[in-house]
Amino acid sequence: MAIDPLYATALEDSAWEIPQDFDTLFNWNYSDERADLLNLYNKGKTMQWDTDSRIDWSQELDPDDPLGIPIELFPLYGADFFMKMSAKEQGEARRHQAAWSNSQFLHGEQGALICSAKIVQNVPDTEAKFYAATQVMDEARHVETYKKFVEKIGVAYPITGPLKTLLDQVLRDSRWDMTYLGMQVVIEGLALAAFANIRDHAKDPLASAVNAYVMQDEARHVAFGRLALREFYPELSQAERNEREEFLIEACYLMRDRFSSSEMWENLGYPIEECKRHLEGSESMKMFRTNLFSRIVPIVKDIGLWGDKIQSAYKDMGVLGFAQLDIDAMQEHDNAVAEEHDARRVHVDAAIDAGRSAAE
Ligand SMILES: [Fe+2]
Ligand SMILES: [Fe+2]
After folding, report:
1. What share of the chain has pLDDT > 70, as a percent?
2. How far is 2 from 4, CA to CA, in rounded Å?
3. Which of 73, 166, 230, 235 has the least CB density, counted as fewest CB within 10 Å?
4. Which one-letter DSSP state was computed for residue 4?
C-alpha cells in the first residue's frame, strides 16, 4: 500500500527533485587491491536478509504505546498540560510521537539509499563501487522495513525541515566523501543512536527487532566510512580538511538545535511554547540530545577530522567525552544483539511447531 493516506499533515509535494552536478566515474582497471573493501563487499553479499521472513510482521502494536516505551521517557512527561491529559489523550500523543520519529527514520533511510547509489557512481575505485552497491541494497531493505513499521503505527509525518536541508546539501555536493560524511557519519550516526535507544528500551518485540536488524547492517556502513575516509583524508590539503570539519560542525549544530518535532505537537494542537520550554529545560531531554552524538563523535575522531575547531565545538556541545568510546566494541555488541533476536525467533518458532504437533 502507498503511504500517502497515512500522512497526518499535508505533503508539500509528492516528489522531491534535487538537481545533480557531479562526474560519474568508470574504472577500466577493475582495481582489486583493496582487500579490506572487498572483504566488506563479501560480507555485504552474504549478510543480506529478507524483512518478510526475518521479522514476524503478524505482531500487532499497542495503538496507545506502539513502541512499548515507559511513559516516563516520553518527551513531554512532566509538562503540566501533558500530566493533566486522560490516558486516551496521552496514548494519542505517544502514537503520534512514534509515528513522527519512525517517519523520519523512513525518510532518512530513503536518503541513505539515494546517497549510496550516488557513491556507486562517483567513487573512483571499483572495490568501493562494489561495496557501495551492497549498501544500496541494504538501504532499500531499511526503507522497506520502516515503511512496514510506519504502516503498523497507522500514522505518518512528512520529512522535517532540518533533515531535508542537510540531505539537500549533501546531495548537491559533487564530492563523494562529502555525501558520505553528511549521510553516513552525521545522519546515520544520529539515527544509530536513536535506533539503539528504541532497541534497548522498547518492550514491543517488533519495534525492538526492527531496530536491532537495521543496526547490524549499519556496522558495515560505518566500517566503509572508516576504511575509505581514513585513507582519503590524509591525501587532502589542510584547507580541504578544514572545510570538512567546518561542514561537520555546522551539520551537528543544525541537527542538535533545529531537529525537533514541533510540527507534530502543533498538529496535535498542543501549546507550542509550553512544549518548547519543557523540551529545552528537561534534564532527561538534554541527556537524550547529548546521547544522540555518541556514535558520531568517535567516528569523526577515527577518520582524522580532529582539529582544534571540531574538538572545541564538541566540547561546547558537551559531547567530547564520546571520543573515547570503542567503536569496534559497540559494533560487536550491535551484532550480538541482532543474533540474540534471531535466536529468540528460532526458539519461538520451535515452540509453536511443538505446540502444533502436540495438538495433532
Ligand atoms: Fe540504513
Ligand atoms: Fe546505512
Report:
1. 99
2. 6
3. 235
4. G
Cβ proximity of 66 and 236 under 8 Å: no
The pLDDT of residue 360 is above 90: no
Helix (H) or strand (E) holding 283: helix 283-291
Three cell numbers written together for 304: 582524522
Give 104-149 pLDDT, tens digit per residue.
Answer: 999 999 999 999 999 999 999 999 999 999 999 999 999 999 999 9
Find, among 205, 269, 246, 272, the residue nearest to 55 by Cα: 205
Neighbours of ion ligand 2 (CB under 5 A): 112, 188, 221
pLDDT score of 45: 96
Cβ-Cβ contacts under 8 Å for 342 (sequence gap 6 or more): 54
Task: Quote the ligand 2 centre to 29 CA distance (angstroms).
Answer: 28
CB distance 102 to 146 below 8 Å: yes
Write down the pTM of the prediction.
0.94
Q: 283, exposed or middle or buried, with CB in 10 Å at 0-12, 13-18, 19+?
A: exposed
Report the distance separating Cα 75 and Cα 96, nearest Å: 12
Q: Specify the DSSP class assigned to residue 156.
A: B
- Return the ligand number nearest the Cα of 116: 2
